[in-house]
Amino acid sequence: PEGWHVPSDNEWDILTDYLGGAESAGCSMKEAGTSHWEDSNTCANNLSGFTGLPAGYRDPSGFVNFGRHGGWWSGRACRLPPS
Length: 83
Fold this sequence. Notes:
The protein has 2 helices and 2 strands; from the N terminus they run H-H-E-E. It is of the alpha+beta class.
C-alpha cells in the first residue's frame, strides 16, 4: 500500500535497539498470552503494539513449529559474486 515498504536491515536494527536490544525485542513484538503462541510465551508483552503472531515455517518435511516460530522479512540488497 502507498506509504508502506519492506523495512531495511538498518530499520530493523533501529527497532531492535529501541526495544531494548536483541535479547528483549522479540518479547516486545509478540502477542502476549497463549491464544496463538504455545505456553512457553512467558516473556511476550507486546509493548511495541506490533502483535507478532506465530506461523511456523516450511522445511523439507513440511510445515513445522506452528505456535512456536514467527519470522519477518527485511529488504537486503542482493549481492552477486564478481564475474
